[in-house]
UniProtKB/TrEMBL annotation:
GO cellular component entries: cytoplasm
One family name in Pfam for this protein: Pyridoxal_deC
Gene3D superfamilies: Aspartate Aminotransferase, domain 1, dopa decarboxylase, N-terminal domain, Type I PLP-dependent aspartate aminotransferase-like (Major domain)
Biological-process GO terms, alphabetical: amino acid metabolic process; carboxylic acid metabolic process
UniProt xrefs under InterPro entries: Aromatic_deC, PyrdxlP-dep_de-COase, PyrdxlP-dep_Trfase, PyrdxlP-dep_Trfase_major, PyrdxlP-dep_Trfase_small
Recorded superkingdom: Eukaryota
Name this protein carries in UniProt: Aromatic-L-amino-acid decarboxylase
Family to which the UniProt record says this protein belongs: Belongs to the group II decarboxylase family.
Origin species: Coemansia spiralis
Cofactor field: pyridoxal 5'-phosphate
SUPFAM superfamilies: PLP-dependent transferases
Molecular-function GO term, any one: carboxy-lyase activity
Length: 501
């Protein structure tokens, strides 16, 4: 393909994208293909000769489109949102243009320095304590800083790896010999709650340590007391606590752990304190949410994913640390062909020392486009619109009378179910008791399944402390009040089909 053809097809591709965005709200949100559908439609080998763009374009329409679940649809309320926006796409195109392998400053100074700048911008926007920023107000370098990573899971592996080496150094400073400290790694334990994202469990496995999932309280929070008890128990069993993950906005219910309490325990036990705010961190762009974030200022690392709720496409997870030395101590490597800056290294971040892999895209461009083209006010409006839509949805469900909330609606996530009293009042069960728990779970699952089959809107369920519940994540960039109205209409109608009025 030469540049003349690229100009032609590039513009056509932009039209395909714009058409998709204009029509996606009219498509059923969930793909209904059966497993293996695509294998049957595809040739067994790559084409021997180049194929025209037109053929691929047609196949996107006929073969790929049916297998797509439309995360950008205003009628998609599943899991957490993936909020894309046009400025993000423009930024991605620009990243593709340069296609650098930006492992260190020398690879492309602009790539490194823009990342440092936008991560400070974003950190200030979400009200992070200044110990997480790369530069203080007078322009002098600080110990902290932010980095762009691929996922919340990756951010946590980076944090755990840094934490593990910090703990080894701490043990050595306590008089334990280096070999013994190294051997003790197999007894290192990570803490979270039963509501912590399973990524933490997986990350602990990758890093090679155990995880203790502490039982959360009745508000689905990890508390100081429960954490202390778990640590006590483990220390008595000869284990070594070294890392705790506090969550700001859990995946099941957007609960917020006792972050100040966890910070106290972490400080006392010399543990690394990581805050996972993958979804809800975006809300901190609005200062009215800052009171909920108390305790984050004491963390060793904090991460959230603009690719979830801040108008940026995947992969865009941002993480800040209070002391970047722990990252380079654990992840920094070097070799002859590396060409690191020698001498004055002020303003220089070699971000390969802050991540798992060596090579990296010019990731900051996309974030820079998003932050500039939406501005603080645009991002705040985006968040506030979804939060008020979620509140409106909650009001509608409560007014209906057949539903109960299972967790407070703090952000854009509404968690509810058909209430057990329905069984008492209906012919379905003469009396409601513990034995009817399975029955009310079954009714709620029926509601989820029927809504998924109906496919005018898409949502998923979850289980919290034995209860099957419905999760509605409001947050599509293309969603408007009309989409929430449709959701309410579908919910009411399907509920009536199952249990009557
Ligand atoms: C979505 C989510 C994750 C996992 O994020 P990935 O980027 O897919 O690794 C982790 N923690 C929380 C709280 C989440 O909401």
């Amino acid at each position: 393909m030469d540049t003349a053809e690229f100009r032609k097809y590039g513009k056509e591709m932009v039209d395909i994208i714009a058409d998709y965005y204009e029509n996606v709200n009219n498509m059923p949100p969930k793909s209904t293909v059966k497993p293996g559908y695509l294998y049957k439609l595809m040739p067994r080998e790559i084409p021997e000769d180049p194929e025209p763009f037109e053929d691929i374009k047609r196949d996107i329409e006929t073969k790929i489109m049916p297998g797509m679940t439309h995360w950008q649809s205003g009628n998609f309320f599943g899991w957490f949102p993936s909020t894309n926006s046009f400025p993000s796409m423009l930024g991605d195109m620009c990243t593709n243009m340069f296609d650098i392998v930006g492992f260190n400053w020398t690879c492309s100074p602009a790539a490194t320095e823009l990342e440092t700048v936008v991560m400070d911008w974003l950190g200030k926007l979400i009200g992070l304590n200044k110990r997480f920023l790369s530069f203080s107000e007078d322009g002098t370098e600080a110990a902290g800083g932010g980095v762009i990573l691929g996922s919340a899971s990756e951010a946590q592996i980076v944090a755990m790896t840094a934490a593990r080496e910090r703990m080894v150094a701490h043990l050595i400073s306590q008089g334990i010999c280096a070999e013994e400290a190294e051997r003790m790694k197999s007894r290192f334990v990570v803490y979270g709650s039963d509501q912590t994202h399973f990524a933490t469990q997986k990350d602990a496995r990758i890093v090679g340590c155990k995880m203790h999932a502490v039982v959360s309280d009745e508000n689905f929070r990890l508390t100081k007391e429960a954490l202390e008890a778990a640590i006590e128990e483990d220390k008595n069993a000869g284990l070594v606590p070294f890392f705790v993950c506090g969550t700001f906005g859990t995946t099941n219910t957007t609960a917020i752990d006792d972050l100040p309490g966890i910070a106290d325990v972490a400080a006392l036990e010399n543990m690394w304190f990581h805050v996972d705010a993958a979804y809800a961190g975006a809300a901190l762009a609005c200062p009215e949410f800052w009171p909920l974030a108390v305790g984050i200022e004491h963390a060793d690392s904090f991460s959230f994913s603009p690719h979830k709720w801040m108008l940026t496409s995947l992969n865009m997870t941002t993480m800040w640390v209070a002391n970047s030395m722990h990252l380079s101590n654990s992840l920094g490597m070097s070799c002859e062909y590396f060409l690191r800056v020698k001498g004055d290294r002020a303003f220089v971040r070699d971000y390969c020392d802050w991540q798992l892999s060596l090579g990296r895209r010019f990731r900051a461009l996309k974030l820079w486009f998003v932050l500039r083209m939406h501005g603080a006010s645009g991002i705040q409006k985006h968040i506030r619109t979804h939060v008020s839509q979620a509140k409106w949805l909650e009001d509608q469900l409560l007014a209906d009378g057949r539903f109960e909330m299972m967790a407070p609606t703090l952000f854009g996530l509404v968690v509810f179910r058909i209430k057990p009293q329905i069984l008492v009042d209906s012919s379905m069960a003469p009396a409601y008791g513990k034995e009817n728990c399975a029955k009310i779970n079954a009714i709620n699952n029926e509601l989820i399944n029927r809504i998924q089959d109906d496919n005018r809107v898409f949502l998923v369920g979850t289980n919290i402390k034995g209860h099957d519940v419905i999760r509605v994540a409001v947050g599509s960039t293309l969603g408007s009040h009309r989409n929430i109205e449709l959701l309410v209409q579908v919910l009411k109608q399907v509920t009536t089909e199952i249990i009557g009025n």
